Amino acid sequence: MTKSVPTQPAWPRNAWYVACTPDELGDKPLGRKICDESMVFYRGEDGKVAALEDFCPHRGAPLSLGFVRDGALVCGYHGLVMGCTGRAHSMPGQRVQGFPSIRAFPAIERYGFVWVWPGDAELADPAKLHPLPWAESDEWAYGGGLFHIACDYRLMIDNLMDLTHETYVHASSIGQREIDEAPVATRVEGDDVVTSRTMQSVQAPPFWRMALRHAGLPDDQPVDRWQICRFSLPSHVMIEVGVALEGRGGYEADPSAKASSIVVDFITPETEHSHWYFWGMARQFAVNDPAVTASVREGQGKIFSEDLAMLEQQQVNLLRYPDRRLLKLNIDAGSVRARMMIDRAIAAETATARVAAE
Amino acid sequence: MTKSVPTQPAWPRNAWYVACTPDELGDKPLGRKICDESMVFYRGEDGKVAALEDFCPHRGAPLSLGFVRDGALVCGYHGLVMGCTGRAHSMPGQRVQGFPSIRAFPAIERYGFVWVWPGDAELADPAKLHPLPWAESDEWAYGGGLFHIACDYRLMIDNLMDLTHETYVHASSIGQREIDEAPVATRVEGDDVVTSRTMQSVQAPPFWRMALRHAGLPDDQPVDRWQICRFSLPSHVMIEVGVALEGRGGYEADPSAKASSIVVDFITPETEHSHWYFWGMARQFAVNDPAVTASVREGQGKIFSEDLAMLEQQQVNLLRYPDRRLLKLNIDAGSVRARMMIDRAIAAETATARVAAE
Amino acid sequence: MTKSVPTQPAWPRNAWYVACTPDELGDKPLGRKICDESMVFYRGEDGKVAALEDFCPHRGAPLSLGFVRDGALVCGYHGLVMGCTGRAHSMPGQRVQGFPSIRAFPAIERYGFVWVWPGDAELADPAKLHPLPWAESDEWAYGGGLFHIACDYRLMIDNLMDLTHETYVHASSIGQREIDEAPVATRVEGDDVVTSRTMQSVQAPPFWRMALRHAGLPDDQPVDRWQICRFSLPSHVMIEVGVALEGRGGYEADPSAKASSIVVDFITPETEHSHWYFWGMARQFAVNDPAVTASVREGQGKIFSEDLAMLEQQQVNLLRYPDRRLLKLNIDAGSVRARMMIDRAIAAETATARVAAE
What is the mean pLDDT of residues A191-195? Predict the structure, then answer.
């Protein structure tokens, strides 16, 4: 017997996505749509993060308009108290045993992020979290932000897996002509896709001159520059970037001769045509200087807002011409392979669902 | 022979709805959509209120962009003059006898409101107006306002027929824990639904302490509090509310021992997912003090704007999950029965229309 | 063999439309949708205007977010350089010979406007440009502006081919009761439709009193006034307007006894329910006084913004009642015939396309 199976989704469901940052979860619950699911996040018992469907089983009010009391989520309309498993806990003057449950989503707080698993709860394994060693090391500092962007999350992956665009979109900060001219190399490592580019003996652009100064290095000499973009399922892109004094080994140079960081990109689908973009930078220079964190964060925010306008307009254009095929050039190899990884993960989930439905 | 009959509407059509307040009808006509009909309201001959379709039969311009001259509505585009029956009256250089008519809607100004009948004009009977004796009495004062709310008008009826929500939505003004704890009693009186709740020996919340002071009563003693919500077709909810000094008979107490008022709610559908909410309070304390009217009005406006956010988000959620059944608890009995009254009225109109069409 | 033919379009495609004014084309390219085509305009080699589809063949980004370098349009995302014929010219590190082309639209800069031909490029003939002799004469001055209006471009043509509306929409500036009372005469001249109205011995309204003063004429005496509206395909309306001292021949009066001008209206469809309205006035009084140009422009802008509100609301109303037929009065004869010209032009294009497809 065959039951109906959902149509091809636009993202893998059985994966950990970044849902929010801990500072977004204060006293009030947080409502956020992720992978087309309206969710409410809050700190339950012992301050542990919980995620539920944002829908009160009594009258359908959003639970995110409610409040947290004694580690339980209270609906702000008529006071139904929800437990973190999605079962009604209590309601003044009512017996709640027979109330319908709502979905609870596995959620974890780690590495300075709150992660959620939109798919089958039984498959949610904390061991599958994307490892972020720098997030637990004193030798690194991190700062970042969040944008809501009205385009398919995959357009952002395309953007980040081909940094050629820096020359054009970010001409005044991190772009430079030599990026265009350097060939890219793309390889697959397990489920990851890595695309890299190195530039020998170039002038450092403004951002990197700043970084060199903070690292105690001269900012007016030729450098070797690298960009190593790593895509991981479901939709994370970590980009190792840096400059080393010329001829000192580039990416492999001794730490005393280089300035480097990791551009951190968690790209969480909201709907098919919008996403939450958690961006940031983990750096190994001036790690104890909060002013540098603030300044890097501000600069990065400006740079990434330049992408935002381009991506949202690109989305509008693509929706106008749904049948037009785009080019897949050598510079697009990274994003083409990343999309293949995504498609393969979706197909595997769909096949599993079909088997389970038979 | 069977003609086509409109599909099940979302509201009774043959009923008087509040359309606007007289102060909204100045020199300019007023355009307002009511029960999915675009209407224009203006003062015709002798200042009498008239309501027409907001559509000029010449070129389709909205008549509400025009002006009133000598008691006739003049289209602001090319000067077609409409009579209050929906027939063209005149037009410079034109013979208008053959012009198509537009609909005229029965309209009445009474009790401080303008009422309109969106259904069959022949059935419009002023005697069917909802009686508002307090509106014509010197012993009462009234103040109110108007909100446009993006939700089904029935969600507002639900809201008003279950005041449990006061504890949560209006915690800082009229809510108090004892509301939750007091059982509700629901009864049907003819076409009306009445749901009531009494609280014995409670502390008066801030609003009622203010009212007690204005009534010349102590505000720091226990009181007996009551809430009697009365739904009348098509969509009116009058709520008798008050407090009496403890043990003096509550609702039945002598006027010298209590402070009371009527929360007035006229809920006029605009579209299936939006409505006009005319709210106000008729009170029997400090009736000659306009400062109290202003203060009560301001406080009530703040309280009702708390409902607005909740209701609009509830609507969004319900549209996301159209197939999900909501719970009907004992506290929901009033709204459940009110909706039954509405459904019955709609069904009766539909049956009549079907017979007429045969 | 019959191929599929597009459904009936809402405008002639094989015609010159005003796309923008030269001052809108500075260093940055300009993105504008015209006749439902997303176009990008820029100055190519030698400053010559070019128009392309606003879609980069690489990844679909809008080319209008890019920049112009050495007379070529560079995509602002990854640097693809487009030639003005719609073929990719170059891209860093890429061979572009096999890249798909995008559409190039014939474009001409003349008479102070940039014109574009949205239809078949082979048919684009500069000789078919609407002649504007005043635009190349020292005896005339011109000033104008641009509005984006959310209504079918044909509603604007209706508006301009029946100036009865001036009495109502523009009561305080150019309207006067006598417009209503004067009969209109409508005639067809080739593909043009001309509708005219004269008023004998009237008081000049404010705008024309100003014009009389600038022409060195008394502004307090009766005048003969004329309005001659001329529609030309695809959607241009030129209106000769003026006043002459009473009894001096009206429109035919000696220039020393009159003040006159041409209201210039280029009405360019954007979508089926929106258009670009290029409005202005070419005048023969005070031609060397830029302050008069500024003042006339400001006044005209105010007057035309009164039409804007009416037209957008009329469009909303018409979409609500798609089946309701509008009246075609004698005052509507000009617009009725103009629409017949448009329909005929569309039908001729459709027939040609059908023959070509067979």
Answer: 95
Residues C240/C221, Cβ–Cβ less than 8 Å: no
In angstroms, rounded to a whole number, what is the distance separating the alpha carbons of residues A34 and A268?
7
Closest-CA residue to B217 (of B258, B173, B262, B260): B258
Spatial neighbors of A302 by CB under 8 A, at least 6 apart, are: A173
Q: Per DSSP, which regions of A203-293 are E strands?
A: 223-232, 236-245, 258-271, 274-283
Distance CA B128, CA B133 (A): 14
Neighbours of chain A (3+ CB pairs under 8 A): B, C
Question: DSSP letters of C34-92?
Answer: ETTEEEEEEE-GGG-EEEEES--TTT---GGGSEEETTEEE-TTT-PEEPTTSSEEEBT
Whether the Cβ atoms of residue A155 and residue A308 lie closer than 8 Å to each other: no
Pairing of strands C17-20, C113-116: antiparallel
Q: Could you report the per-residue pLDDT of C130-159, keeping only the tens digit for each?
A: 999 999 999 999 999 999 999 999 999 999
List CB contacts (< 8 A) between B54 and chain C: 317
Buried b (16+ CB within 10 A) or exposed e, C308-332: bebbbbbbebbeeeeeeebbebebb
Q: Of the candidates C238, C297, C295, which has an alpha carbon nearest to the alpha carbon of residue C262?
A: C238
Q: Which of B31, B25, B63 is nearest to B47 (CA)?
A: B25
Q: Which two tokens stand for residue A248?
A: 């000192």
Residue where the block lists tokens 């009530």 = B300
CA distance A349 to C118: 47
Cross-sheet strand order for the sheet of B37-43: B30-34, B37-43, B49-53, B104-105
Q: Which of B60, B78, B99 sits opposite C331 (nearest CB)?
A: B78
- Cis, bond preceding C234 (omega within 30 deg of 0): yes
Instruction: Give the integer Cα–Cα distance in Å for B257 and B259.
Output: 7
Q: Please give the biggest Cα pair distance in chain A.
A: 76
How is B21-68 classified by DSSP, letter by letter? -GGG-SSS-EEEEETTEEEEEEE-GGG-EEEEES--TTT---GGGSEE
The verdict on a CB contact (< 8 Å) between B55 and C164 is no
User: pLDDT: is C269 or B182 the higher one?
Assistant: C269
Of C184 and A262, the one with more pLDDT? A262
Closest CA to A327 of C160, C275, C58: C58
pLDDT digits (tens, 9 = 90+) for A295-343: 999 989 998 998 998 999 999 999 999 888 889 888 889 999 999 999 9
Give the tokens for residue B210.
Answer: 């203010």
DSSP E strand stretches across chain C: 17-20, 30-34, 37-43, 49-53, 67-69, 72-74, 81-82, 88-90, 104-105, 107-110, 113-116, 141-149, 185-189, 192-202, 223-232, 236-245, 258-271, 274-283
User: Using CB atoms, which residue from A181, A324, A331 is nearest to C78?
Assistant: A331
Helix (H) or strand (E) holding C303: helix C290-320
What is the rounded (10 degree) CA torsion for B182, B183, B187, B192?
40
What is the rounded CA–CA span in Å between residue B97 and residue B167? 61
Interior angle at CA A53, CA A49 and CA A54, nearest 5: 95
Question: Nearest-CA distance from C186 to chain B in Å?
Answer: 16
Phi, then psi, of A8 in degrees rounded to 5: -50, 115
Task: Please write down the HEC assignment for all residues of C247-279.
Answer: CCCHHHCCHHHEEEEEEEEEEEEEECCEEEEEE
Lookup: tokens for B67: 């002006």
Interface mutation vs chain C, best among A317, A332, A335, most C CBs within 10 Å: A317
Which of C60, C62, C79 has the CB atom closest to A168's CB atom? Answer: C79
Q: What is the mean pLDDT of chain A?
A: 92
In chain B the domains, ranked by start, together with CATH numbers, are 17-127 (2.102.10.10), 133-348 (3.90.380.10)
